[in-house]
Write a structure and sequence with these properties.
Elements lengths: L1 E7 L6 E7 L2 E5 L1 E3 L12 H6 L5 E3 L1 H6 L3 H6 L3 H5 L5 E3 L3 H7 L1 E6 L2 E5 L6 E4 L1 H11 L3 E3 L11 H25 L5 E6 L5 H14 L4 E3 L8 H11 L9 E3 L5 H9 L4 E3 L2 H7 L2 E4 L2 E4 L19 H5 L2 H9 L3 H27 L3 H17 L1
Parallel strand pairs: 4-14, 5-6, 6-10, 10-11, 11-12, 12-13, 13-14
Antiparallel strand pairs: 1-2, 2-3, 7-8, 8-9, 15-16
Helix pairs in contact: 6-7, 7-8, 8-9, 10-14, 10-15, 11-14, 13-14, 14-15
The structure holds zinc ion (ZN).
The site of zinc ion (ZN) has 8 residues, from helix 12 and helix 14.
């Protein structure tokens, strides 16, 4: 893996870069659609490519339980299995263990948990998380971390961060033993909302030397300003020549704010999950397509949107599909929402290239404050 910073904005910390991975190059800042079960729900790989998706995120937790990472490995790895030949980032599985399964026991060696599908017992260790992601064959794998809830006291956050750093060390050591240079392992900065812990965590990981750094444990219920403060507290301790990945974030406005604070990579289920729920992003805020006011609305979702859905279909038709529970509703809504996110990232990259990122930031802040007044 190789990361080049192409240009930096002069008035914010925004950077325009390019990630070179085993399965291709990725222009940054980048948004990674989430393909939980080795599929972005409702989308074929061809449709994703038509939307210019360059990298996907897949969830190790789901894939290790079903169909099993070893099976995926025997079938040629995740890329071959799902018919996607561009880069893939996998998470460690830790986040879903903490959020989906009935936990049995977290110890220094890892976490024992019950599968949410059939109740079977499993154990996830730092070494195991690397082995699972090695079998999947993702371009970027993530270290196993301890996922802290919000709110958490300083002492609990400190203990959780220390456990995460210990696990990161073990992932790093195991990765050196078993992996080759077709994969890269990122470390994850933890420490809750506490600047001192975040700094300690970042310094620990940077000393170990990872090719990329994630900021984890955010977007778990804390106010947005707190999230931005944490990113600002971490960023100065991360090396400039390595990509920074803000995990699980967020709204289009969060992406613009995150980039201004020096973030290069994002993932979030929001555009795809909202699409299936009939919530659609537009340049004037989001709309809920089932609303009666769209019953005979002949206009597109967003007249400013260049996506194929907005070129062809009316709000009335999309509302009809949603109300009738048609599969095509999810497909078309997902195409539009992903296009909206990817187009936001394209604009972000352009504004950085023109050294005018503060203008985009001002525009987005003005829009979100006027949306709140409505
Ligand atoms: Zn559209």
């Amino acid at each position: 893996m190789n990361f080049e910073v192409i240009t930096k904005d002069t008035r914010t910390r925004a950077r325009r870069g390019r990630l070179h991975l085993a399965h291709g190059a990725v222009e940054t800042p980048v948004f990674m659609p989430v393909g939980t079960q080795a599929t972005v729900k409702g989308m074929t790989p061809e449709q994703l490519k038509a939307l210019s998706v360059e990298i996907l995120l897949c969830n190790s937790y789901h894939l290790m339980l079903r169909p099993g990472h070893e099976a995926v490995g025997r079938l040629g790895g995740l890329h071959h299995f799902m018919g996607w030949d561009r880069p893939i980032l996998t998470d460690s599985g830790g986040y879903q263990v903490f959020s989906l399964s009935a936990l049995r026991n977290i110890g220094d060696d890892g976490v024992e948990f019950r599968c949410h599908l059939d109740g079977s017992t499993h154990f996830l260790s730092p070494e195991g998380a690397v082995d699972i992601q090695k079998a999947l064959g993702s371009d970027i794998m993530m270290a196993l971390d301890d996922c802290l809830g919000f709110p958490a006291e300083h002492a609990a956050a400190a203990a959780s961060m220390k456990r995460s750093m210990n696990w990161a060390d073990r992932c790093h050591a195991h990765f050196q033993k078993v992996a080759d240079d077709s994969q890269a392992l990122f470390g994850i900065v933890q420490g809750g909302v506490f600047a001192d812990l975040r700094r300690q965590s970042a310094e620990h990981l940077v000393q170990r030397g990872f090719p990329g750094y994630a900021i984890g444990g955010l977007a778990v219920g804390e106010p947005n300003e707190v999230m931005y403060e944490v990113i600002s507290a971490v960023e100065p301790f991360l090396p400039e020549d390595r990509p920074r990945y803000l995990m699980g974030v967020g709204t289009p406005a969060d992406l613009v704010e995150g980039v201004a604070l020096g973030v290069d990579m994002f993932d979030c289920v929001m555009p795809t999950r909202h699409a299936r729920n009939g919530s659609l992003f537009t340049s004037g805020g989001h709309i809920v397509i089932k609303h009666a006011r769209y019953k005979e609305d002949p206009g597109p979702i967003d007249s400013k949107c260049g996506c194929p859905v907005c070129q062809t279909y009316s709000r009335a038709y999309l509302r009809h599909l949603f109300m009738a529970g048609e599969i095509l509703s999810s497909v078309l809504n997902t195409v539009h929402n992903l296009y909206f996110y990817l187009d936001t990232m394209r604009r972000i990259r352009q504004f950085i290239e023109f050294h005018r990122y503060d203008e985009l930031l001002t525009e987005v802040r003005r829009r979100s404050s006027s949306a709140m007044e409505e």
